[in-house]
Amino acid sequence: MPDVVIIGAGVVGCAIARELSKYSLDICVIEKSEDVCCGTSKANSALIHAGYDAAPGSLKARFNIEGNKMMDRLAADLDIHFKRIGSYVVLFEGDDRSKLEELYERGIKNGVEGLRMIEKEELHEKEPNIAEDAIAALYAPSAGIVCPFGMTSAFAENACTNGVKFIFDTKVTDIVNKDGSYEISGDGAFKTTAKAVINAAGVYSDKIHNMVSSRKYNIRTRRGCYYLLDKSAGNFVNHIIFTLPNAMGKGIVTSPTVHGNLIVGPDALETDDRESTCTTAEELDKVRMCVNRNLKNPPLKAVITSFAGLRAHEENGDFIIGECEDAPGFFDCVGIESPGLSAAPAIGVYVAELVAGKLGAGKKENFISTRKGIPEVSKLSFEERNALIARNPAYGNIICRCETISEGEIIDAIRRRPGATTLDGVKRRVRAGMGRCQAGFCTPRTMEILARELDIPLKSVRKSGPDSLMIPNIDLNEKFRQSE
Ligand SMILES: Cc1cc2nc3c(=O)[nH]c(=O)nc-3n(C[C@H](O)[C@H](O)[C@H](O)COP(=O)(O)OP(=O)(O)OC[C@H]3O[C@@H](n4cnc5c(N)ncnc54)[C@H](O)[C@@H]3O)c2cc1C
Fold first, then answer.
1. Would the CB of 67 count as within 6 Å of ligand 1?
2. From the CA of 41, how far away is ligand 1's center (Å)?
3. Measured from the CB, is residue 45 less than 6 Å from ligand 1?
């Protein structure tokens, strides 16, 4: 029986798992999807916010600021792609200047370092592609960009190295408090018992909480759609560019990504469907119009894909983090919408300390604090590449041409723990299929490697979840006869 069960393997669950693995505890993460980072953590703006947006005194403000400060150390220890490139919230002619000043005041109260207002001349010098009627901006040098997949996988792998177990494809369906411990039931006949439970279930965190508590929470999801542009557009802006925030979110962002693409979005649309991560022409049009208005001739012809993420908005508006009042030993992370990615490292530390304190667990002496990422052939010098290929020729066999990803990297992604078991799992870990052709070329070759490494028939290889077989299980001859 594990001491602690964490429900959800998004960035929050994995950050907590890693922090908690510093203590002498038996820990298990239960995830309904087939991999880590399959929920909101895979579909967001990929920003480490500076922390001026949330109300002073709120948990959002506190954990955003603390999480932001932890990122340099974490990036070094866990080999996470992270760049502190700074952000501008831009004021255009006709915008309400007092709203920008309000953000500045809030940022100062929250403790954001280096925050300052800049005027038109400096803004246009730093960002020549911003629209002519941009007249001022709030500059936050501590804002950064990160790879959210890499960050989540890094937490999970390091947690795994330190003894945390991950159980995938298992949806928690019921939790019962029995004599001071929790009986957790899941898909099929899954059952386990734990002394403590951590609810990190993203858009379902209210449902998980409501299984054990009489104080009910209610999450309404807000969808945000994005365009991702090719690397040819990656240098169009030098910083993260925001418009003024509104009641539904932080406004539309244009930002370089750590991998050299350009991301634009999101809009915000309330939806009752917690699985609906489709994009619609209407929502994408809003993004397009906003970008066209804010930038000079934005290179939107370079769009390579679009995607959407779901904000876990709880009615009370702030993060809800801590031990549940009427369920001792049950710890909530509810309503972790933006800035949840930025806050995750600090939430991890806070929740791990609470849980370890509750269970009276001490720190381990043999905690391994570092993790090495998968070698990136495309970033190596000619000599380094040759040396790697001499050691293992699979690093010389390029599978994804757009991103220059080798067979060796894909094998590494599959053999890691927790490792990739699907095409999307490979894509999130090493970017095979993330490039300009969006997996048009490398899919069959990556499928062959997955089948070989996982020792499964080619027809069992999946794109992501259970209903995503790449080779449909149908008799084509029969279909053909039916259509005649
Ligand atoms: C459009 C958009 C833009 C954003 N941009 C940013 C940004 O730039 N910077 C920032 O800091 N934040 C941003 N955020 C917020 C950030 O992405 C989230 O706060 C963060 O990813 C939440 O992580 P999580 O682990 O709580 O949730 P998730 O990543 O959703 O993980 C929850 C996990 O729980 C699992 N789960 C759910 N129910 C069950 C169950 N019954 N049994 C087992 N498993 C279950 C899910 O499958 C999922 O994997 C953005 C969010 C959105 C939607």
1. no
2. 4
3. yes
The ligand 1 atom nearest the CA atom of 30: 43
Residue 484 clears pLDDT 90, i.e. is over it: no
Burial class (CB in 10 A: 0-12, 13-18, 19+), 463: middle
Rounded Cα distance, 127 and 220, in Å:
36
Ligand 1 center from residue 203 Cα (angstroms): 7
- Identify whether the C-beta of residue 6 lies closer than 8 Å to the C-beta of residue 172: no
Residues 6+ apart with CB under 8 A from 368: 158, 161, 162
- The pLDDT tens digits for 343-394 are 999 999 999 999 999 999 999 999 999 999 999 999 999 999 999 999 999 9
Q: Is 11's C-beta closer than 6 angstroms to any atom of ligand 1? A: yes
How many Å lie between the centroid of ligand 1 and the Cα of residue 40? 3
Pocket probe for ligand 1: among 41, 71, 269, 307, the residue whose CB has the most ligand atoms within 8 Å is 41
In Å, the largest CA–CA distance within the chain is 72
- Is the CB–ligand 1 distance for residue 413 below 6 Å? no
Q: Taking the CB of residue 141, how many other CB atoms lie within 10 A of it?
A: 16
Look up residue 35 and give its two tokens: 């991999």
In order of their start, the domains of the chain are: 4-41+148-218+316-359 (3.50.50.60), 84-144+220-312 (3.30.9.10), 377-460 (1.10.10.1100)
For 361-419, what is the HEC assignment? CCECCCCCCCCCCCCCHHHCCHHHHHHHHHHCHHHHCEEECCCCEEHHHHHHHHHCCCC
* Across 212-240, average pLDDT: 97
Rounded to the nearest 5°, which phi and psi values hold at 90? Answer: -95, 135
- The CB density around residue 329, as the number of other CB atoms within 10 Å, is 20
Residues 64, 337: Cα–Cα separation, whole Å: 11
- 81 annotated active-site: no
DSSP SS3 for 175: strand
Residues facing 134 on adjacent strands: 92
The 3-state DSSP class for residue 141 equals coil
User: Does the C-beta of 87 come closer than 6 Å to ligand 1?
Assistant: no
Ligand 1 contact, 277 CB (< 6 A): no
Nearest one of 90, 151, 173, 79 to 374, comparing CA atoms: 79
| Total-model pTM | 0.97
pLDDT in tens, 307-353: 999 999 999 999 999 999 999 999 999 999 999 999 999 999 999 99
